[in-house]
């Protein structure tokens, strides 16, 4: 008998089977632990980019999970993508519950490890903090791990109310599509010193209220990068906000090259160079992780 210590057991060589194909044997995804709030905070602290997409159904949710996505958002963009509405204003809480249920079941079918976020739709949280809690409860009981709500200022106390009651919250500033009629269109927000300072102040207040995540949509890249450096307890997720955020999100159909209307400028079509949907999703995760998406010249302001 030698005294040589036993070498650590090498990772299983067995390829990880998914319903959509086989992942490479050494893939860290094969044994990935569930993404949780502490793990997201750890990724944020280490500077590992957080990759997020929207999902509206069980099949795409399972595929994105297999591709190694960190977070999925059941976005109220489903009103435009799935229901054919021309804005997100008409999306009901019942529709959000239905799609959250479907996505959550898809993740359970494959023992998914993805962090699941659901949008509180227009009109489901504006009336009172109690209304927001009741609406958030519907989505959490449908399988969401976190809810997202749009806006700053008055939303701060709503965020605090939910977080104090054990509901993780993602905030959303910049282009907030539920208020498109007040904003005057889907255009860049936070441009100029005054608008930029207001957005920053609102973001800090949301972090102090306990928001663990903040979507920044269509804001100047420099503003998003500055905020990202300032907010250490809240991970920024950009969409059309440049490469300086802690993570990125896109609408799933957009990054697969499918869009009923005008493709926003911040989108990259990951199907263009991929042989299929799973490789396109994997390419997105990889591009977010290695910083090659977005390209500041092509996908930001
Ligand atoms: N399919 C889809 N993708 C999205 O990103 C998305 C939705 N739906 N629905 C909800 C909101 C609406 N969003 C939008 C919609 C349109 C533009 C758009 O047309 N942007 C123009 C710039 C317009 C301007 O600056 O005046 C662009 O060229 O990107 C951007 C974001 C983002 N969200
Ligand atoms: C675009 C993302 C951030 C969103 O809110 C949605 O898909 O509804
Ligand atoms: Mg939304």
Automatic annotation (TrEMBL):
- Co-factor remark: Binds 1 Mg(2+) ion per subunit.
Q: List the keywords (alphabetical).
A: Cytoplasm, Magnesium, Metal-binding, Pantothenate biosynthesis, Transferase
Q: Where is the composition biased (Pro residues)?
A: 1-13
Disordered as annotated region, ranges: 1-34
Q: What is its EC number?
A: 2.1.2.11
Biological role stated in the UniProt entry: Catalyzes the reversible reaction in which hydroxymethyl group from 5,10-methylenetetrahydrofolate is transferred onto alpha-ketoisovalerate to form ketopantoate.
What is this protein's record name? Answer: 3-methyl-2-oxobutanoate hydroxymethyltransferase
User: Which gene is the coding source of this polypeptide chain?
Assistant: panB
